[in-house]
Design brief:
Number of domains: 3
Number of strands: 16
Distance between the termini: 33 Å
CATH architecture of the largest domain: Sandwich
Largest sheet: 5 strands, antiparallel
Shape: globular
Structural class: alpha/beta
Helix content: 25-40%
Length: 340
């Protein structure tokens, strides 16, 4: 990420007028050198640096790697600002100064009402997450084998959900056996997911989502205007249209956002892409667009039943969990997909 740090698209410097507009949505506060603003695992606020500097750090093997340093006019955050997922890096003040701080709800309101800032922030957030994935930052390690179907499943689930991870191949990497010995797991347990001090042996996608907090920011007791079952292209399109019209939208997906279409290497019959587009690129754009308008997407949580008792209809996502919606009609279904 250090090489890419010179990119204005990744780390733009805001104008005074843009900073002034952001300040109207948040609060100014002083910062002191050494102060930790965001710890790994936190739900991170959004910061604009007015004076001073903030370092974004990745702790590895007892040491810290500086991912980037934000100076005056620059801002913190990446795609987790949109999804509400836990921070995978630490943010610490490296020079005394001042920042403008926004919580996630205020940031989303800003993005939904200021087209210029929306374009700048959304582009930076998406590109930064891509760089974090490419660099394998974060505390997630997969120990597995290319000959293991479970390993391929776990890698695909994390990749399609935009989760950075480091992969250690039992068949090639010398450190694999050391890790297995350190965490007291055997070859029969693979794939093994190591998240800090926690070890998951051949975990299900739902166990991974729960451990990494993919759905933590979603309030399951909140009554929705619209619940969409299936986060394929049709489901995500319905989420964009509903949320952009001011509806409170929740999308349920048993796997990963994008559904089966996200696995297509090339889709050539989708409106607006005459030369074709990969399924992952198409669904990633649709997912980001849905989040931009305020829709929420719950992954690894499929609908198992409908509760059609008036005045609230419910969508069951487990034995004891039911999500409620206001309308008297059944929940929308959005599992349709283009042919790739």
């Amino acid at each position: 990420m250090a090489v890419a740090a010179s990119s204005e698209r990744l780390f733009p410097t805001l104008t005074e007028a843009q900073i002034h507009r952001i300040a109207a949505h948040g609060r100014r506060r002083q910062t002191t050198k050494g102060e930790v603003l965001v710890e790994i695992g936190d739900t991170a606020p959004f910061f604009v640096v007015v004076r001073g500097a903030i370092q974004v750090l990745s702790p590895t093997a007892g040491a810290e790697t500086v991912i980037v340093t934000h100076g005056p006019g620059q801002f913190t955050g990446e795609a987790n600002m949109m999804t509400g997922r836990r921070s995978i890096a630490r943010s610490r003040v490296s020079e005394d100064g001042e920042v403008i701080q926004l919580d996630r709800s205020a940031l989303l309101a800003l993005i939904q009402t200021d087209a210029e800032l929306s374009a700048i922030l959304m582009r930076a957030f998406i590109l930064r997450r891509a760089e974090l994935i490419a660099g394998g930052y974060g505390a997630v390690i997969i120990v597995g084998s290319a000959h293991s179907a479970g390993t391929l499943r776990v890698k695909e689930f994390l990749t399609r959900n935009g989760q950075p991870f480091r992969y250690i191949d039992l068949d090639r990497d010398r450190e694999a056996q050391e890790l297995l010995d350190e965490f007291h797991v055997s070859v029969d347990d693979i794939p093994v997911l190591i998240c800090g001090a926690t070890v998951l042996r051949n975990p299900t996608n739902q166990q991974i989502a729960d451990r990494l907090g993919f759905n933590e920011a979603i309030d399951r007791t909140h009554v929705r205007d619209l619940v969409i079952v299936g986060a394929g292209p049709a489901g995500l399109a319905a989420a964009v249209y509903g949320a952009s019209e001011g509806l409170d939208v929740l999308v349920l997906e048993a796997g990963s956002a994008g559904g089966q279409a996200g696995t297509s290497s090339r889709i050539e019959n989708y409106l607006g892409f005459p030369t074709g587009i990969s399924g992952m690129d198409l669904t990633a754009r649709a997912y980001a667009q849905a989040l931009k308008f305020g829709a929420e997407v719950m992954v690894a949580k499929g609908a198992v039943r409908l509760d059609c008792r008036s005045p609230l209809y419910g969508v069951g996502i487990g034995e004891d969990a039911t999500l409620a919606r206001k309308s008297s009609s059944s929940a929308a279904t959005g599992t349709g997909r283009p042919v790739g």
